[in-house]
Amino acid sequence: MKISVSQALLILLDKYKKDKARFKELKSLYLSGAKDEKSLKLINKYLNDDILQKYEVSREPEVINEDSSRRYFETHLAYETLSRKIDGFTAEEIKTYTQWIKELVPDYYNQLWDRVVIEHKGKADNIEREYSDFFNKLKNHEIFTDFSEENRGKIVNIVAAAFIAMVIASNKPDALPLDIYGEGIYLERGKKDKSGQKSTATSAYGLLRGHSPLPRDDKALMAKPQRFLKPSDQATYDLQAQWVKDNFDRLVHPFSNSISGTMLCQLRALLKIRENLKALDSNFQLENPEQLIPLSPEKLETFMTTFISVMLFNSGGHTLYEYAAPLELDKVQEAFSDVEGFNQLNLEELFLTSNEEAFDVALNKAIEYNNQLLLKSDIHQEIQEKKTAFDLKTLKAAIEESPFSSNVKENFNQLLNDSDVDKVKMCLIQAEKLNDIIQKNEERVSSELFSSYRQGSARHKIVTKNLNEAIDALSHGEVTHVTH
Is the pLDDT assigned to residue 452 strictly greater than 80? Predict the structure, then answer.
């Protein structure tokens, strides 16, 4: 059975959950993957574990990308993280922060976001529709239903901050610093939009896709299906692009929409607000500046974590790695170099080191989910093996009962040893059809008058010779020889 590296690591995490040292090491590898040579060597070592002998552990991008257990884990990690981190700032603090973003441009820009943020009626494009749908779900208590009204209000402001920053970056890019979207890794994103997917519906939140299996009581299951294309379903990847190569070289990260532009927009807005606030603070016009989200290292980290969690859980527009990657870009690090601890902000710090309780809850859910997937695959494989064994037995009997010569039968039996059952079945059926043509032609020629018989007999010999050659080719599995 073929499984992904992430699935293999989940199997190992389940095996070593009581071995503290290995469990800790495996958690890091599972979240971040082969981020450097050392972690790659560790993963390779673990993949030699005896418990994985029955599996074919694949490093193929397609297998990594289609792993539902990984998408399930990240979706639930986002939810569990948000439920624990959302109390890290007050409703007033996040509301004030969102208002500061609005004030980065003149009031007449409000019309660009009010339709979505205030009226929830976005129709202009997929992004507007996505955000207005999110606001409506929050308003109608269809998402984050376990959260208090106060915390749901915080989420509304986080989503508003995301949308408004994107609108500003798109319509007045010079209003924000750090405009690096058109350079470096952002030029090598490798995102390719899927065609014919506009009406694809889904019932799953987060990175999970429309075909991902989900229990009825799962938090990642939508209250009602979404009738338009979800970001996690809208794109595929270009394997030649630098970002895509790096992503899959790490062995565990699926691809959603490449390195996040949404996160970059938010970082640009944050940076501009910090500049404005520091100017005010230098004139002693700020009260308790250390408590403000853009100026407090602790609150800034909490905001980054909750921002990623909110955005990922709703739409799966980016994976955890895609969201966190902009934080580690050189120019971003340089721009925020005066923020204490900012150089430590990365995927592992945000979602494991300072988030262990939420991580462990999501991990346990992912292990159970993966075990169920593996069980279903085992059952399916067992059924297929029994079906194949039955087909093999009946096919051998069919070969023996066929009207062919002993040489042709021997060829078919040898083909059965070397090829799959379906191919041999197809070749045998075609060969029997050709033999029927020979028999019917022979009967027709035998019934003809003497003068016609002589001509028909000559033609029959030529046809029979050609058809027997085709039958012999089929008994060797040479389908193309026959069809051409």
Answer: no
Q: What is the pLDDT of residues 17-36, one digit of tens each?
A: 999 999 999 999 999 999 99
Separation between Cα atoms, residue 313 and residue 294, nearest integer Å: 23
Sign of the alpha-carbon torsion through 211, 214, 217, 218: negative
- The rounded distance, in Å, linking the Cα atoms of 124 and 157 is 22
Identify residue 3 by its one-letter amino acid code: I
Q: Under 8 Å CB-to-CB from 192, ≥6 apart: which residues?
A: 235, 236, 237, 238
The span from the CA of 89 to the CA of 270, in Å, is: 16
d(CA 140, CA 217): 19
Q: What is the pLDDT of residues 399-443, one digit of tens each?
A: 888 888 999 999 989 988 887 878 888 888 889 889 888 888 888
Q: What's the per-residue H, E or C state across 230-257?
A: CHHHCEEECCCCHHHHHHHHCCCCCCCC
**pLDDT, averaged across the chain:** 90
Rounded Cα gap, residues 286 and 46, in angstroms: 53
Report the C-alpha gap between 222 and 137 in whole angstroms. Answer: 10
Structure tokens at 137: 């779900």
Q: How far apart are CA 81 and CA 356, in angstroms?
A: 9
